[in-house]
Amino acid sequence: MDRIDATQIPEPGLVVLDLTAHDETTALAVMEVLERLWATSGITPVRREPGMPGVRARVHADIRHTGTQPPEALYGAGM
User: What are the DSSP E strand ranges found in 1-79?
Assistant: First the structure.
């Protein structure tokens, strides 16, 4: 993965998440959940790095804005 620099997180509420998962299916499932919670860069490419276990992906998210479903829809109204 490329280094994260200040231009990617210029203000509070912006995050860059580097995911490592066992397989592509797992990584895609995690990205789908993140996309429902927050405004994200969406489903990003999943990569295998030679000599490294699992697969990797990077997601940019803005946690100040909800995603495709409000948290209540994911976890119930008692959140």
Answer: 14-21, 38-40, 55-66
Do 36 and 68 meet the contact criterion of CB atoms below 8 Å apart? yes
Two structure tokens written together for 67: 């995603």
Residue 46, both tokens: 């999943």
d(CA 44, CA 66): 18
pLDDT tens-digit profile of 1-46?
A: 577 676 777 789 999 999 999 999 999 999 999 999 999 999 999 9
Q: Which residues pair with 58 in a beta bridge?
A: 18
What is the number of other CB atoms lying within 10 angstroms of the CB of residue 70? 12
- pTM score: 0.76
> How much of the chain is helix, strand and coil, in % rounded to 5?
30, 30, 40
